[in-house]
Amino acid sequence: MMGAARAILADDERLMREQLRARLAEVWPELEIVAEAKNGQEAVELVQRLRPDLAFLDIRMPGLTGVEAARAIGSACHVVFVTAYGEFAIEAFEQGAVDYVLKPAEPARLQVTVQRLKQRLQAPPPDLGALLDQLARKLDTVASSQRGPSHLQWIQAAIGQQLRMIPVGEILFFVSDEKYTRVQTEGYEALIRVPIRELVEQLDPEQFWQIHRSTIVNVRAVSGIVRDFRGRQLVTLKNHAEKLEVSRSFAHLFRQM
């Protein structure tokens, strides 16, 4: 194949597109990202118009799913599926006809994908019909087994010059001021521009409790409740020295503790 490879990225989450673009730039700097799509229909239209060599398609998108978009794209370009669901990657892609990227994209795993893709680009795109049928069935099975809304799985934050994807399970708490929200894990802290009121709506309420208008805590990180000399309730954490104030509005959450 002559010249640098050209690709499109399709994901309904802008942060995921930015993260994948940044990771690809690290491990495959020659790759040219010619366009981005917010849904499957846009991806199909971009492939038809721009004729890229590769399409990175999120499996779950509104409108057309990544699988449906891949079926519409056909053999116009090579397809790479992007998924947060390990069961797709483990089973469906073992056939080797197509590759995948697990969210959030990690450089080491992406490097393996890139090497495979460079090999695949030496040949025409394969017929994915049978694989796409299998993926569609599996997607339906997973969708029907899931109850309730999906919750935020990771936070994208800048730490110095590095863009990091932080799994929400590793986060001890969030504390906001007027401009930023601090994200605290056992090992480091980061700042994001997402207010507490938005985070509360996106996080799993079984795991993350708002305890103050400016604070959300991971319940699994809580070791207990103490009172200070003024009678205020303070949350203590298992692996962090900081104590978090509980406002009166949220004191009822800890009456059973």
Question: In words, what does this structure look like?
Answer:
This protein has 257 residues and is α/β, with parallel strands linked by helices. It folds into 2 domains: 6-145, 3-Layer(aba) Sandwich (Rossmann fold); 154-254, OB fold (Dihydrolipoamide Acetyltransferase, E2P), CATH 2.40.50. The chain is 30% helix and 31% strand. It contains 7 helices and 15 strands. It has helices at residues 14-27, 40-50, 66-73, 86-91, 107-120, 129-145, 196-202, and strands spanning 6-10, 32-37, 54-58, 78-83, 99-102, 154-159, 162-167, 171-176, 181-185, 189-192, 208-212, 215-218, 222-227, 233-237, 240-246. The strands form 4 sheets. Strands 2-1-3-4-5 form a 5-stranded parallel β-sheet, with helices on both faces. A 5-stranded antiparallel β-sheet has the order 10-9-8-12-11, with no helix packed on it. A hairpin with a 2-residue loop joins strand 6 (154-159) and strand 7 (162-167). Helix 2 (40-50) packs parallel to helix 3 (66-73). The longest helix is centred in the middle third of the chain and has 17 residues, at 129-145.
